[in-house]
Each structure stands twice: as C-alpha cells, then as structure tokens.
Amino acid sequence: MPNQKGAKRGLESSKSKIAPEDANEKSAMPSNVLIDSFHDYAATAVALTLTEEDMDEFPPLPVTPLKSPAPKKVMYERSSSDPDDANQIISRLSALINTRSDDIESMVRENTLQTDGLKKTIEFVSVEMKDMKGKVCDLEKKVTKEEGRVDNCQQRISELERYSRRWNLRLHGVKEAEKEDVREKVIEICKSVLPKQNHRLPDVIDTVHRLGAKRQGSTRPRGIIVQFTSRIYRDAVWKAAKTSSYLQNNHLRFAEDLSREDKERRDKLWPMIDKARKEGKPAYFVGG
Q1: What's the number of CA atoms in the CB half-sphere (13 Å) around residue 132?
Q2: Cβ–Cβ under 8 Å, residues 180 and 245
Q3: pTM of the prediction?
Q4: ∠ CA 140-146-150, rounded to 5°
Q5: Where are the alpha helices (DSSP H) in the chain?
Q6: Which residues make Cβ contacts (< 8 Å) with residue 223, sequence separation at least 6?
Q7: Which residues pair with 170 in a beta bridge?
Q8: What is the DSSP letter of 167?
Q9: What is the CA radius of gyration of the chain?
Q10: Where are the domains of the chain?
Q11: What burial class does residue 170 get, using C-beta atoms within 10 Å of its C-beta: 0-12 exposed, 13-18 middle, 19+ buried?
Q12: Side-chain half-sphere CA neighbours of 90 within 13 A
C-alpha cells in the first residue's frame, strides 16, 4: 500500500501545482479542495481533497493585491509644553489684539468726528447755496428790468438828441480865415439862399461855430454848425438850399445835422435810395 499511497500523493501534488493561483476566487469551496481543469476545459471540475499533511507540505499561495496599500499615518506625539509659556503667548496675543482694537476704535472715532464735521459743513454750504440761488434769481430779474429801463432811456435820449438836432443845419465849403466872424458869413449865405426872409434871418440864426479843432496843414475848411431859433425858418432854408444856384456856383452845401446812429442807418439805406433815383423814382429819407 505504500506505493499506491505515494502514487496518489504524486498525482495530487501534480494536480495541485496546476490549480489556479487565485485561491480567493474559490472561497466558496473548502480550502483543501483542488479543481482539475487542466486537460479538459469543457469537463466538469474534479474536486481533490487534501489532507492536513498535504496542506502542511503545500501551503496555499498568498493573495497578490491589485494596488499598493495606503501608507499608514504616523501619529506624532505632541510635545508637552510649559503652561507658563502658553499663558505668556496668550497674554501677548491678547495685549496685541487689544492695542490694535484700541487703535482701530480711535481711528473710527476720529473718522466719525470728521464725517460729522463734513456733514455739517455740507449742510451749511447747501443752505448758503440755496440762499445764493435765491439772491441770484432776484438779481437776474432786477438786471433784466434795469436792462429794459436802460434801453428805454437810450431810446429816449436818442429821440431827444434827434429832436434837438432838427433845429440845426451844417454848412460845408466856407473858407476859413484868421479872426473871422463865422455868424456874419452864415447870415449872408442864408440871405442869398432865402432872399424873401432877409429881415428875419439875423434874428432866427442863433449859434454858429466851426466843427472840431483846426487841422494844421489842411487846406480843406472845417464844417459849420448853424443853430436856428425857429424850425420854420430852418426848414425854409433847408428846402431852398436844395435848388439854390448860389450854393452850386460857390461850391457850398447845406446838410442835416444827424446823430451817429442816424448816419449809420442812412448809410445802409443810401444804395436803395440812389438806385431808386437813378430809375426816376422819388426817394428820400423821412425823419432820422
């Protein structure tokens, strides 16, 4: 029987060598059972029972893990510190926090005071601005009103000046002489222009004088302003002067005494007047 037992053991050992390495996959079977599926894959599995001696002689292979095990966490022992040192550290941190908090509190207090001051200043300025706006509006109304009054006064002054100049006539072309009597010269010229009123002209001609300062080296005589005391005789002289042959022969000319505004206005209208006269149409200035 020893030979049979050795042959049986060799068969079981040879079959155990070809058994699958992964013993965990067959955990449902007993640990001492081997499956012979080496030659026939379609055949049913043959279970081989191993004895305790065979298990001792042929121990099962270890299971190879798929992944490396996670490293173990090393627990470091906390060093026991002195309680006095910890208390000192805590006190220092507390003092530092208190100091910083006091500084922050003081800064916040200062900023609050400054903000309150700025708020009061802004409120005061806003009130002042409202007052100034009201005053400016009142002043604008007054200025507008005064501008209207000034324009009205300017118009009235222009009208008064224009009205006072209607008593005057200007005479151009009279030669100048040293120590001349300009009034006598003007009276004689007016008598020649309006001979029907010879006896009245010396009484109605009031003020007579040259215009402007005497120009040195100039041969052109200065104009003469003639002021009448009666509009009737002034208008009569002015009307007769327009067709007087005496004035034309002596190169003399009467003109109206116009203000600067009236001159500028007539200078703008003169091209239209001249065009109408050349076309044979009656055209003349009226008033100023």
Answers
A1: 6
A2: no
A3: 0.50
A4: 140
A5: 2-17, 52-57, 83-165, 182-193, 201-204, 231-241, 245-249, 260-278
A6: 170, 171, 172, 210, 211, 212
A7: 225, 255
A8: T
A9: 69
A10: 2-57, 167-258
A11: middle
A12: 6
The C-alpha atoms of residue 172 and residue 13 are separated, in whole angstroms, by: 162
> Whole-angstrom Cα distance, residue 39 to residue 45?
11
Instruction: Kindly report the backbone phi and psi dihedral angles of residue 117, in degrees, each rounded to the nearest multiple of 5, phi listed first.
Output: -65, -45
Place of tokens 């029987």: 1
In b/e form, how buried is each residue of 28-57, taking b as 16+ CB within 10 angstroms?
eeeeeebbbbeeeeeeeeeebebeeebeee
Ramachandran area for residue 179 (φ above 0: left; ψ -120 to 50: alpha; else beta): left
**pLDDT tens sequence for the chain (288 residues):** 444 444 444 444 444 444 444 444 444 444 444 444 444 544 455 555 556 666 556 556 555 555 666 666 555 455 555 677 888 888 888 888 888 888 898 899 889 888 988 999 999 999 999 999 999 999 999 999 999 999 999 989 988 888 889 899 999 999 988 888 999 999 999 999 999 888 899 999 999 999 988 877 778 889 999 999 999 999 999 999 989 999 999 999 999 988 888 888 888 888 888 888 888 888 777 655
Spell out the residues 6+ positions from residue 175 whose beta carbon is closer than 8 angstroms to its own: 221
The span from the CA of 274 to the CA of 285, in Å, is 11
Quick one: how far is CA 209 from the chain centroid? 62
Q: Which is the CATH superfamily of the domain at 167-258?
A: L1 transposable element, RRM domain (3.30.70.1820)
